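Just curious: can you write whichever protein you like plus the matching structure tokens?

***
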Amino acid sequence: QVQLVESGGGLVQAGGSLRLSCAASGRTSSTTAMGWFRQAPGKEREFVAAINWSGGSTYYADSVKGRFTISRDNAKKTVYLQMNSLKPEDTAVYYCAADRSLGVVISITSYDYWGQGTQVTVSS
């Protein structure tokens, strides 16, 4: 099993920044691709960003492109999501996920492991 724990969420004003972290533990040798998703109240969980096993390839949802950056430190078994120029519509619970694939994975159904989520609230 793989355990994922997110941290770094909080309340921020519009235009501000937050950095989310996702620390992996357990049988992490079986996971490579990582992703961030979010779920706002009353909405379905949606893709935000993904990164491949090495960190050399990334992919973003159009809604966050140019504002968010996903990165990873494999030595620390941690994935990050740097969020800049935050907007009220970014308010959601943010989840990280892990998958056994080597490449970038954007499909929510492909991910095998999920964290418990961290709340991000952006005030106007």
